[in-house]
């Protein structure tokens, strides 16, 4: 099934949300194939322009099928650096590690040649881990070429969780840090997350969601309301160009 494309706009009390490009598919398999092709194309364009490309991906169960499809795309993977949108403060072999998820599903097949830059480090505390991760991200050469977000049913994206300890700073368009530590009731472990400026400046910014429940959450997020309640609104309202949304039932 070919994607249906349209443009949605939503307004905040003070200013409009940028246009959103919808890419809807009949099922997750078709979405994964199409999204992999889009991302591979963007990486190829970056490599052609600069000789290298950067990609930041999210964790969770939703992107597994997409990761597998992307890993088999014919990209010059030895010129690609992959990192994470966010990470739990757990070692790479932990079952809840996004590093582990990427290793098992994305850094395989052809994409095994890519360079991977983790956010986690065995630091003295979360703030030190955030500083180490920020230095790594800053060293990639910003802005990122592609950033792919997910979204939870509570309206969080990246590790921008409602009631997050550093949510205001993480979603501040003028935040001077590339990565910060954050804790929240719904987050489980303490986390590291790319900040809003690093995310929205990406050359290609995508939101990958699946299921009717997340579709309903997105529709609500597009309505006026505080970003603290549904932090994905910070991205929807802060995007510097149309945000590409990939959705399947």
From TrEMBL:
A Pfam family this chain is assigned to: Glucosamine_iso
Classification via CDD domains: 6PGL (cd01400)
Domain Glucosamine/galactosamine-6-phosphate isomerase: 28-238
Enzyme superclass (EC): hydrolase
Keyword Cytoplasm tagged: no
GO terms (BP aspect): carbohydrate metabolic process; pentose-phosphate shunt
Keyword terms of this UniProt record: Hydrolase
GO MF annotations in UniProt: 6-phosphogluconolactonase activity
Enzyme Commission number(s) of this protein: 3.1.1.31
Pathway: Carbohydrate degradation; pentose phosphate pathway; D-ribulose 5-phosphate from D-glucose 6-phosphate (oxidative stage): step 2/3
Known function: Hydrolysis of 6-phosphogluconolactone to 6-phosphogluconate.
Protein known as: 6-phosphogluconolactonase
Organism: Hoeflea phototrophica (strain DSM 17068 / NCIMB 14078 / DFL-43)
Record gene name: pgl
């Amino acid at each position: 099934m070919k994607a249906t494309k349209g443009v949605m706009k939503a307004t905040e009390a003070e200013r409009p949300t940028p246009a959103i490009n919808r890419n809807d598919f009949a099922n997750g398999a078709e979405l994964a194939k199409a999204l992999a092709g889009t991302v591979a194309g963007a990486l190829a364009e970056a490599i052609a322009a600069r000789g290298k490309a950067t990609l930041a991906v999210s964790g969770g169960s939703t992107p597994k099928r997409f990761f597998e499809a992307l890993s088999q795309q014919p990209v010059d993977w030895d010129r690609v650096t992959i990192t994470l949108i966010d990470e739990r403060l757990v070692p790479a072999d932990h079952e809840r590690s996004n590093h582990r998820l990427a290793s098992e599903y994305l850094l395989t097949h052809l994409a095994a040649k890519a360079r991977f830059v983790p956010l986690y480090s065995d630091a003295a505390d979360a703030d030190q881990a955030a500083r180490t991760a920020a230095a790594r991200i800053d060293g990639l050469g910003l802005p990122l070429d592609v950033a792919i977000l997910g979204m939870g049913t509570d309206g969080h994206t990246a590790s921008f969780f409602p009631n997050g300890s550093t949510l205001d700073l993480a979603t501040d368009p003028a935040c001077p840090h590339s990565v910060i530590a954050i804790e929240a009731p719904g987050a489980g472990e303490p986390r590291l997350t790319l900040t809003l400026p690093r995310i929205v400046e990406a050359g290609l910014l995508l939101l990958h969601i699946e299921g009717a429940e997340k579709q309903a959450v997105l529709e609500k997020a597009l309505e006026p309301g505080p970003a603290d309640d549904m932090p994905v609104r910070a991205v929807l309202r802060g995007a510097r160009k149309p945000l590409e949304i990939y959705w399947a039932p």
